[in-house]
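Students often ask why inverse folding is considered easier than folding. One informal answer: many sequences map to the same fold, so there is more than one right answer. In these notes we will look at a single instance of the problem. The structure comes first.
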């Protein structure tokens, strides 16, 4: 059985922390990080707001991302092996992934804003935090391409609001998570929800 889970959310909302924890506890679990599909800085256009447009879908090679997901769908065992994921005994025996449960986590800030990707999820989660907290967390992070002054208010937050609205219109199956609650609480809620869905599918 194959099962795909989306972990979306606002920048610095706790997506990666949650994803990494699930990766350790869910069986035969692989992950695709949307951040791995950013285009090179010189391919990112400067918008009307005067900033390079990092927080829009065009800044990402979504076709490559979809192809990566398809690669997992076609052969989760081969995908897991090539990504250094150890599989349980029954899952390991079947090369095509017919035996056991195979789980793929798709993590990113715009994973519900690209139509071809929306159809693949069995389960959708989204973490959000308020403006002040988001700005505070973002200011403490170090990025490969550092944030220029004014980027958060001038580009990041307005784009988040725009895409969140778009996402709510695109996908009605999202379970929303409060990023202000403890990491433990968020994890427990998500883990329980996934377990219930898996039991219903068996």
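Output (designed amino acids):
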């Amino acid at each position: 059985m194959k099962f795909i889970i989306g972990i979306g959310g606002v920048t610095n909302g706790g997506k990666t922390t949650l994803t990494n924890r699930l990766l350790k506890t869910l069986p035969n679990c692989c992950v695709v990080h949307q951040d791995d599909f950013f285009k090179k800085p010189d391919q990112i256009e400067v918008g009307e707001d005067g900033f390079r447009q990092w927080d829009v879908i065009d800044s990402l090679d979504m076709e490559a991302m979809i192809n990566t997901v398809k690669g997992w769908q076609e052969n989760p065992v081969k995908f897991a092996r090539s990504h250094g994921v150890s599989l349980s005994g029954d899952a390991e025996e079947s090369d095509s992934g017919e035996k056991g449960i195979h789980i793929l986590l798709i993590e990113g800030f715009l994973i519900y804003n690209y139509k071809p990707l929306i159809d693949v999820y069995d389960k959708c989660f989204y973490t959000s935090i308020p403006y002040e907290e988001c700005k505070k967390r973002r200011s403490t992070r170090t990025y490969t391409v550092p944030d220029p002054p004014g980027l958060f208010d001038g580009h990041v937050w307005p784009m988040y609001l725009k895409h969140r609205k778009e996402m709510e219109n695109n996908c009605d199956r999202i379970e929303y998570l409060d990023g202000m609650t403890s990491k433990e609480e968020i994890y427990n809620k998500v883990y329980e929800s996934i377990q219930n869905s898996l039991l219903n599918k068996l």
